[in-house]
Amino acid sequence: MKRTNENIVSSFFYYMWNRWSKTECETVFGSMAGHFWAKWCGLSSATLSGAAERFYAELGNNARDKIVERACELYDGQRFVTERKEEDESQINVCECCGSRDIQIRAWVDGNTNEHISDIDDSSDDFWCDSCEEAHYFVSLKEYKERMYQWWKHLDLEENKRLSGDAEDLDAWWSSLSFDQQRELYKKNYWDEE
Question: Phi and psi dihedrals of 91, rounded to 5?
Answer without folding.
Answer: -105, 0
